[in-house]
Amino acid sequence: MALRYLHTMVRVLDLESSLAFYKLLGLEETRRIENEQGRFTLVFLAPPGQPECPVELTYNWDGDEGLPSDSRHFGHLAYEVDDIYATCAHLEANGVAINRPPRDGRMAFVRSPDNVSIELLQKDGALAPAEPWTSRPNIGHW
């Protein structure tokens, strides 16, 4: 039996703000499907050079009223970054809260506009602990 990863799907309430967030992370739009009959839009985004690792944003034109809101079975999306401090500073400068700062120089968590948890991991092991991150507390849930 062969198995091949396809994508991770997350529902979004505001497509434009969600696209802006994921593009801040560095993802690029690879495909878009507008389905007039089903009244939804699917946007696939992936890291540069990694089209085989997409996240699918699903936007229902008429909203998501009546759909289950319990997302406790979904953990998080994870992305490796070249410089966790620079990535977190970039996100924060653009209004993204750093829920779990990279105090250890290795791991941070942020949330998308739709409350999806995103883990950021430092490429090639931890950087030396550095301010302002080492003294920052966690904010909210991550």
From TrEMBL:
Signal peptide: none annotated. It comes from the Bacteria. Keywords: Lyase, Metal-binding. GO terms for molecular function: lactoylglutathione lyase activity; metal ion binding. The keyword Secreted does not apply. Residues 4-123 form the VOC domain. Pfam families: Glyoxalase. The keyword Lyase applies. InterPro entries: Glyas_Bleomycin-R_OHBP_Dase (IPR029068), Glyas_Fos-R_dOase_dom (IPR004360), Glyoxalase_1_CS (IPR018146), VOC_core (IPR037523). PANTHER family: LACTOYLGLUTATHIONE LYASE, LACTOYLGLUTATHIONE LYASE GLYOXALASE I. This is Lactoylglutathione lyase.
